[in-house]
Amino acid sequence: MADNDNFEEKEIQSDDPIIQKCLDIIRNKNVIVKDLSGKEFYRVYIGDEYQFSFHKYDEFDQYQVGIDFKDWFFYKKRPDLEELYRLCATKYNEQALKKEEKTGRKPLTPGQITGILFMLAGLTVAAVGVINYKKSEKTQRVNKQVEAYEKTLPPEYLEYKQAVEHYRDSLMHTKGK
Asked: What is the pLDDT of residue 7?
């Protein structure tokens, strides 16, 4: 008989009470794990009640645990921290798969959400441009009609209009100083 035949998978326990509390919470079947940033910064809830957050910084072998608005940092690889990371990731992925199966579609990635927002912004800009173009067309049409009407007026009216504009310009130059 090989040694592996008697192997029973045991739950990893921690000597650190903070890590042990997190391990106990994450092993609860009613736990909900969210990754709000999309960068494996896990937030753990039971129902709507926030329990703790957990993040692993691979490049530094650093772990961050947040409970009750306090953060603790651990700076070396430890089996209990690796187990906590694995449990968080597993629960999160299981919940994402259940959500995908339930709705029949995959959740949007942060990049897809950004793309959709840029498309909506572009459509808004295009709509504003079309509206302004229509307004400028109307303004040009009205100006042409006014010019055509002015041509039908007697010449004294045009002289009077030019005198008024000249007076307005002279006032602008003297009052502006």
From this structure: 43
